[in-house]
Amino acid sequence: MTLIIGIVCEEGVVVAADGAATLGNLGLSTVRQQAKKLTILQDKIIMGVSGPVGLGQILLGEMDKIYSESLLSNKEPHEAMSIISDKFRVHINKELEAAQRAQGVVGIGGTAGMSAISFSLVALPISKEPCLFQFNQQGAPERANGDLPFVSIGSGQQIADPFLAFIRRVLWKGQSPSMGEAIFAAVWTLNHAIDTNPGGISEPIEVMVLRKPNSEWEAVELTEDELKEHKETVTYMEKHISDFNKPTPELVKDLPKIPKIKK
Known about the structure:
Proteasome subunit beta, Proteasome_sua/b, Glutamine Phosphoribosylpyrophosphate, subunit 1, domain 1, Ntn_hydrolases_N
């Protein structure tokens, strides 16, 4: 079980994830353990994979190789995500083919395909521009942008997407968020998913940012101290919403009146 969130913001990209990994075999879960789900590559790439650990490790290695061989140099964002997609598909297709061959033996309930289904998020600079790419179970790419600046993958996506849409509508008001606002949104969404998910998504959360403090892009993980203020703001926001149900006399006079229904 996994939830990984990516948000494109004014100063770069924020990527965050929960810290639970579920182990199992043939579709049966055996134990849940803490695990890091985000990886920094080449000091300027953030990558997270939802799905089988083995395939995720292969895709991480491929992404590292792509960048180290300068295959993305002087490319436009759409060209870069096409190159990454082609490289990822080589490995994904191998797993899909192996799953298809195993279908007759372990295919009950789709078990054979579980080792081949993965989703990936990659944040990296392309042509001096911060980019956030999503790759689905077939390796098909999609880029997050100002029109839709957030994306989530994993079992917690059905909880995260509506909550992120709510934050965007209410707090960002259709604008690109600042990095601080994006970090806060990621922390609040993860907390919400952890509190409401029936199981498999849990603490600790990790948050990484792709930023450009000077002339070079860098990918760094935020410390617990750096996240503390955002977690406190989440607590404040939820208390503020709760207190709205107990309005003060000053607040009551400004509240709109609920229209009466005519009989």
